[in-house]
Known about the structure:
8-stranded parallel β-barrel; binds 2-phosphoglycolic acid; alpha/beta; 10 helices; TIM Barrel
Amino acid sequence: MKKMLIACNWKMNLTTSESVALVQSIIEGIKNKKISPDILVCPPFTSIDAVSKVLKGTKIFYGAQNCHFESKGAVTGEISIPMLKELGCRYIIIGHSERRTYFFENDELVNKKARAVLASGLIPIICIGESLREREENRTFDVLKRQIEIGLSRIEPEYCVQIVIAYEPVWAIGTGVSAEPEQIQEAHSYIKKELIRVLGKRASSIIVLYGGSVTDENAQSILELKDVHGGLIGGASLKSDIFLSIIETANLVLA
Ligand code: PGA
């Protein structure tokens, strides 16, 4: 059966009490139901501890949206991987396009973070994807190739089981304009080939998520694509009814 991960990226939204309320309604919504995909929530740092307590005893995973690559030191305002690990985080989103754009994170930094996350035993969700301009200039594959080659360099193939990639075309994030299913399948199939080229055969087990304006309305046409193994969902994960309906869809696709 296809493996699937439905991951929420709450970004800089929700206070601690709002995060707790959202996660409680997600738990309520899936109570007594058989849920086939893995579910992951990535709250803001300030909510992780409270959310982890509410999730105790459930099968929902939680993680963080960013980290520093050093485990400690004089880096004001940053959060280290051991800090997140102690809170029970299982996944850390790395290299989201908003971090690349607003905080100038490049592929080399993404690689440092990815290697540090892997070394700590956690799972990096490494985000890649082209901008609108890059797509219009027919450079999508070149960009994906560079992001994979540098972002995943010096990673041992045995870590393949522990890596998640999220293909998120920048022009589709938060815009309400998702990529078309054909564009998504084409990019995912290219990404899978590149992963195998860079990391070897074991990379065929790497889960590749799609992110960018996934909603309850387009989830089915995206999740049923051959090389799509789930979604990284921003805006639509902030409303429990919409998010629960995406989970339902994932369940149907996996049935
Ligand atoms: P979106 O965000 O679903 O709001 O487009 C996705 C993401 O940035 O991960």
